[in-house]
Amino acid sequence: MTWKDKAIKHIEECMPKESCGLLAIIKGKETYWPCKNIAESGFEYFVIDPDDWAECEDTGEIIGIVHSHPVGSCYPSDNDKASCEHLGLPWYIFSVENKEWHNFEPSGYKSS
User: Fold this and answer.
1) Which of 81, 67, 51, 75 is nearest to 18 (CA)?
2) Which of 89, 75, 95 is nearest to 11 (CA)?
């Protein structure tokens, strides 16, 4: 089972809300780390539980952010793009509706 398979299982468990998680290197292997979405409205955006982030960071090296779009495409929103730039990590988005993945990386551009 790949990390994407594990992420899709978590995504299905979180429906109809957006799921969120981290991609990390743990014991030399890319691993999906499921996180709680603590956003007030988990239907339109996500906020990763800081305790989940800290636990993952203590266990391995975080190398990406994973979340779902329950409705619509797998392409990033403006908020997704801004958050990707801010965190400086690749993002992986799964469209539940279209059953497809999209990933993108920060451009390195930071506004002042």
Assistant:
1) 67
2) 95
